[in-house]
Amino acid sequence: MNNDIEKVLYTQEQIDQRIDELAATLSAKYHDEFPVIVPVMTGAMMFASELMKRLNFKLNIDYVDVSSYEDSSESSGKVRLLRDLSHDVSGRPVLMIEDIIDTGHTLEFLNKLFASRGAKSVEICSLLDKPERREAPVKIDYLGFTVPNEFIVGYGLDYNGLYRNLPYVGVLKRSVYEK
């Protein structure tokens, strides 16, 4: 797998340090609230798991799964809800945890969904942001790192279900995904 990586953008140590910082900020913000933490899709699970272990407040964890890629490396822009929350978010703060924000369509869809269900607030914490690809307006409340407009894998991010288990964030070689 490592041979398929063009370059490492963020090491495991850099990611761990940034997660510590994000967790401290979130713990100060939510110390007296009872939010629903919502990792978005499979990719966010590694980041969400590491982040939630460091949070020092009461919370519920729920999970949504949505699709906008339809087995492609490019977003279709059409978001489908594949798995919905099991918790009622009415009157509660919702903190969505995302691995990477690129077009913004998924988070725009979920933000509207949770707001329509009466969430007290909806905030976004993302490990990565790829602003060059933004098509939908999305406010990122808590951000790990900004990445270039490259095909990024590792630390939960994948290409065809592979590379999620890399302990770092890297750029996938073009030769791998342009076959």
Automatic annotation (TrEMBL):
Instruction: Give one GO biological process term.
Output: purine ribonucleoside salvage
Pathway of action: Purine metabolism; IMP biosynthesis via salvage pathway; IMP from hypoxanthine: step 1/1; Purine metabolism; GMP biosynthesis via salvage pathway; GMP from guanine: step 1/1
Q: Name one GO cellular component term.
A: cytosol
Reaction equations catalysed: IMP + diphosphate = hypoxanthine + 5-phospho-alpha-D-ribose 1-diphosphate; GMP + diphosphate = guanine + 5-phospho-alpha-D-ribose 1-diphosphate
Pfam families xrefs: Pribosyltran (PF00156)
Q: What is its EC number?
A: 2.4.2.8
Domain annotation Phosphoribosyltransferase: ranges:
11-159
Question: Where, per UniProt, does this protein localize?
Answer: Cytoplasm
Task: Fetch the InterPro entries from UniProt.
Answer: HGPRT, Hxn_phspho_trans, PRTase-like, PRTase_dom
Q: Does the keyword Membrane apply?
A: no
| Needed cofactors | Mg(2+)
Record keywords: Transcription included? no
Instruction: Tell me one GO molecular function of this protein.
Output: hypoxanthine phosphoribosyltransferase activity
The text of the family note is: Belongs to the purine/pyrimidine phosphoribosyltransferase family.
Q: What does this protein do?
A: Purine salvage pathway enzyme that catalyzes the transfer of the ribosyl-5-phosphate group from 5-phospho-alpha-D-ribose 1-diphosphate (PRPP) to the N9 position of the 6-oxopurines hypoxanthine and guanine to form the corresponding ribonucleotides IMP (inosine 5'-monophosphate) and GMP (guanosine 5'-monophosphate), with the release of PPi.
Recorded protein name is Hypoxanthine phosphoribosyltransferase
What is the organism field in this record? Limosilactobacillus albertensis
